[in-house]
From TrEMBL:
The keyword Transferase applies. It comes from Aspergillus sclerotiicarbonarius (strain CBS 121057 / IBT 28362). This is PLP-dependent transferase. Belongs to the class-III pyridoxal-phosphate-dependent aminotransferase family. It holds the Pfam family Aminotran_3. The lineage of its organism: Eukaryota, Fungi, Dikarya, Ascomycota, Pezizomycotina. Keywords: Pyridoxal phosphate, Transferase.
Length: 425
């Protein structure tokens, strides 16, 4: 890195400005790091010199520990569909706090949320709850193996299905399935890898953590056809993409998997995950069922967890499912599409070929190319923070249900200023 390079000088300026403005955030991260490696228990939140620390949020705004307000376009990495402290969610949670919330038994909300979710996803005849998208994918793979009697799992390079199912460069914590890695959106490279001893294909209809990269409908249909031919269970990880269409991208593309995993926003701000699918597969969780697996064997899958049906997630989830109406999601998608197209125009005007805008609807990703691409991405992140806009450090925006036209316009305006005042060819 040449210290005299204008981009290097600009990056040094804006990172220094960031640390100068955020001494309490820096102190909090530094002091926590002695007992909490990196100062946070979420690797995705960490970045040098240190991440921001927040103390509160309202609507689509966050307030840092140092007292500055930011327009929030991280939206809890797509999970925060309702802004901060949505009044309908608050009312629902207040009802839980006055009735008791660690009851140690079944409540009506469990069945109510199940009905709301099963009714919107074409692939779901039945559903089970857990505590995260990671868990949902782990359980889905577990039952796929039990149902088919097979061991191998097909995943895709750069796919992310949770902290124990990550297929980028850092995957030392992955669960020890026998994984086969296909190439996303590449039929020619993937087809030879598909064999009749594979239990499941696990795929995101849009790779979110990899940069909001959509799968082509042609590729998804290819997987659907091959899974049917080889009796493989096709699992769509719609933990993120269920925010993009009322019935997920499976409904948008009319390609129905055998199982679906969801999470994030459907907990209304609380820990949540779920997996569902065809009745014959899900019946393996019913201790009173005579259902059998593909080999004709009766094999019951014992699935439990203290917080699977916790009242906070179940109650907030019922509100969340209703708030995420077809109309509300379409409105958020329209704003996301406007932001994506507008930012692409701004980037192309200043530095053609540097940035490719990605994503679907309300999930907006950015791919930076060239030898200076990563430096520009980092500089852009710190510049936006200096202007009071909070985006994901890895290069993405998530439009939520409380964002309006004025909010996406502000991002466009700040980006235009960045290109005109800071970005030097």
């Amino acid at each position: 890195m040449n210290p005299q390079d204008p981009l290097t000088q600009a990056l040094t300026h804006y990172t220094t400005l960031f640390t100068t403005r955020n001494p309490q955030s820096r102190h909090t991260i530094t002091s926590a790091s002695a007992l909490l490696p990196s100062g946070t228990t979420r690797a995705g939140l960490y970045h040098p010199p240190h991440p921001l620390v927040f103390r509160s949020g309202h609507s689509c705004y966050l307030t840092s520990l140092d007292g500055d307000e930011y327009l929030d376009f991280v939206s809890e990495y797509t999970a925060g569909m309702f802004g901060h402290s949505h009044p309908e969610v608050i009312t629902a949670i207040h009802s839980v706090t006055t009735q008791g919330f660690t009851l140690g038994g079944v409540t009506e909300k469990e069945g109510e949320l199940a009905r709301l979710l099963v009714s919107r996803f074409p692939s779901m005849d039945a559903i089970r709850f857990c505590n995260s998208g990671t868990e949902a994918n782990m359980f889905a793979l577990g039952v796929a193996g039990a149902y088919t009697g097979r061991k191998k799992i097909m995943v895709f390079k750069n796919g992310y299905h949770g902290g124990t199912l990550s297929f980028g460069p850092n995957n030392a914590l992955n669960v020890p399935h026998e994984f086969i890695q296909g190439i996303y959106n590449d039929i020619e490279a993937t087809k030879p890898l598909l064999t009749s001893d594979i239990a499941a294909i696990l795929i995101e209809p849009m790779q979110a953590a990899a940069g909001m990269i959509p799968a082509s409908p042609t590729f998804l249909q290819f997987l659907r056809d091959e899974a049917t031919r080889l009796n493989i269970i096709l699992i769509f990880d719609e933990v993120v993409t269920s925010r993009l269409w009322y019935g997920g991208l499976q409904e948008k593309y009319n390609i129905v998997p055998d199982m679906t995993t969801i999470g994030k926003h459907f907990g209304g701000g609380f820990s949540f995950g779920a997996f569902g699918g065809k009745g014959a597969i899900m019946e393996m969780f019913n201790p009173n069922s005579e259902a059998v697996n593909a080999a004709g064997e009766k094999k019951y899958c014992f699935h439990s967890g203290t917080w699977n049906n916790n009242l906070f997630s179940m109650t907030a989830g019922c509100v969340a499912a209703r708030l995420m109406s077809r109309e509300a999601l379409e409105r958020a998608n329209e704003l996301g599409e406007w932001l994506r197209e507008t930012l692409q125009g701004v980037w192309e005007e200043k530095w053609p070929g540097l940035v490719v805008m990605r994503g679907v609807g309300s999930a907006v990703g950015m791919g930076f190319s060239g030898e200076k691409g990563e430096m520009v991405r980092e500089l852009y992140y710190f510049y936006l923070l200096s202007e009071g806009v909070y985006m994901a450090y890895r290069g993405s925006f998530a439009v939520n249900l409380v964002h309006g036209r004025e909010h996406v316009q502000r991002v466009a305006e700040v980006t235009r200023r960045f290109c005109e005042e800071v970005l030097v060819v």
